Amino acid sequence: MHRPSGCKERIRMNTREQDGISGLRHYLEGKRVVVIGNSESQFSQHLGARIDAYDAVVRMNLGAIRAPEHQGSRTDVVFTSSEKLSAAMIDDWFKPSWVVWATPKREKMPDLSALGERLVLHPVEIWEALHARIEPARPSTGLIALNFLFQHCKCAELAFAGFDFFASGTFYNRKFFGLIKHPRKASKPHDGAEEQRVVADMIASGRVRNLAQAD
């Protein structure tokens, strides 16, 4: 299996990383958790109040709240793989209790030391197992978050919204940091069809639901 560069010596987590992951799992245990993706299509769904009713709200990367009536109004956990998202931006945009660096490319992580013990490193071996299911594509940050919560946390309930597997594009790609991208190109290097298949398996288990489709 291909392993991202820089990861060969980091398969075993050190004690601090293990404590961080354990702390996050403990925080989420028994909670009703919802993961909010960054699709453009979410801005017609009016799910904000239902999102806010969950015990913990998870967001990703540059997906700051721009329309609370659709996205909800708070963030408890942020999963990020963005080199552009600084600790100051995370606190300004999200004010989260926890932040997870999602990619195994630790050398790409910006200086997030100001987050202190709120910062957690997503385990490389969990990423590799997920990657093996969809390779050669790499898992998106949203899929990494859902997979971690589904496979490795004891949530009382797990739901998601704002995912359409790149059909409508990522809402912030054309707005921030001068990134002028066509939405259809935003999924690379990810595979929306493969990610949808993985999430469909989660839904079929009865342990995950799509909030946009739930009664």
Automatic annotation (TrEMBL):
<keyword id="KW-0328">Glycosyltransferase</keyword>
<keyword id="KW-0325">Glycoprotein</keyword>
<dbReference type="InterPro" id="IPR001675">
    <property type="entry name" value="Glyco_trans_29"/>
</dbReference>
<keyword id="KW-0812">Transmembrane</keyword>
<dbReference type="GO" id="GO:0016020">
    <property type="term" value="C:membrane"/>
</dbReference>
<dbReference type="GO" id="GO:0012505">
    <property type="term" value="C:endomembrane system"/>
</dbReference>
<dbReference type="Pfam" id="PF00777">
    <property type="entry name" value="Glyco_transf_29"/>
</dbReference>
<keyword id="KW-0808">Transferase</keyword>
<keyword id="KW-1133">Transmembrane helix</keyword>
<dbReference type="InterPro" id="IPR038578">
    <property type="entry name" value="GT29-like_sf"/>
</dbReference>
<dbReference type="InterPro" id="IPR051142">
    <property type="entry name" value="Glycosyltransferase_29"/>
</dbReference>
<protein>
    <recommendedName>
        <fullName>Glycosyltransferase family 29 (Sialyltransferase)</fullName>
    </recommendedName>
</protein>
<dbReference type="GO" id="GO:0008373">
    <property type="term" value="F:sialyltransferase activity"/>
</dbReference>
<keyword id="KW-0472">Membrane</keyword>
